[in-house]
Amino acid sequence: MAARIDYDTVSVGTELPPLTVPVTRSGLVRYAGAAGDFNPLHFSDRSAQQAGFPAAIAHGMLTMALAGQLVTEWSGDPASLCDFSVRFTKPVPVPDDGVGARLGLRGTVTEKLEGRRVRVALEVLCEGVKVLGSAQAVVQLN
Amino acid sequence: MAADRPSAGHVYPPTEIYEVSRAKIREFAEAIGAGSPAHVDPAAAEELGHAEVIAPATFPFLVVHRVSSRILNGPEWGLADASPVHTAQRIRPSRPVRAGDRLAVTLHVESVRRLAGRDVVQMRGEVRTEDGEHVVDTFMTFTAGGPDERKTG
């Protein structure tokens, strides 16, 4: 497990170690099963194309979960997310081509709060496009 | 959307109990690539001060979604044919979900609006143990109907 981050070592502007995460069609199917979300938009190209998407799209909650991972891998404690919010602003198409999509995740400390907590602004990019809006987390540090 | 739909302030009382298993936490953690041993190893969880393995932060949505999707797609809301799209999510835990938790969801309708010809519904899933201990609030926004300008998952 990563060392837990000490509040005193963090300042406004501190950047979290970025992550690049591949998302494949089989990963979507796996998430669908684990989360019990069987909306066909997330595994069927036919359904996704009827709805105007080029291919099946990732579950918004999977993208949010990956953004959460960015934070908790940094903080060292999966229970450190105290308040976590996102808007799902753009789809993440995941073509069934054996490659899928690639998400770039970044986070920056924007505020130091009471109680050894910090606010982190999050950014998730797919092909250079931001797919989450107003994504932020309040994180409990040591 | 049905004309007699519930409005802001409406509360759906607590549901049947959802019992959280170690296996479900492991399955969910693996599906999101969560590598912390605290999701699978009770000793690692204990090192972080938790009495049992803990679930990732977004896990509670799974518990709430079982309830909210049934309600939104049911006849009362009539959104099944309007393809409700999840447009925003906030998760505010009091503590992480742990294996062995027996959870009940109370669903609150926070707001119902019309925006650019579409229905925007905000709900709060209040998750407590069967003994009443608060675990987490999940705030969900869904948009349905109107011009098909879906953006999301």
Automatic annotation (TrEMBL), chain A:
The similarity annotation says:
Belongs to the enoyl-CoA hydratase/isomerase family.
- Which intervals hold domain MaoC-like? 19-98
Q: What is the organism field in this record?
A: Streptomyces chattanoogensis
Full protein name:
Dehydratase
**One Pfam family from the record:** MaoC_dehydratas
PANTHER family the record matches: (3R)-HYDROXYACYL-ACP DEHYDRATASE SUBUNIT HADB, 3-HYDROXYACYL-THIOESTER DEHYDRATASE HTDX-RELATED
Judging by the UniProt lineage, the source's domain of life is Bacteria
From TrEMBL, chain B:
The stretch of residues making up the signal peptide is: none
Report TM segments. none
Q: Name one Pfam family in it.
A: FAS1_DH_region
InterPro entries for the chain: FAS1-like_DH_region (IPR039569), HadA-like (IPR016709), HotDog_dom_sf (IPR029069)
The FAS1-like dehydratase domain extends over 9-137
Q: Which named protein is this?
A: FAS1-like dehydratase domain-containing protein
Q: What organism is this sequence from? A: Streptomyces chattanoogensis
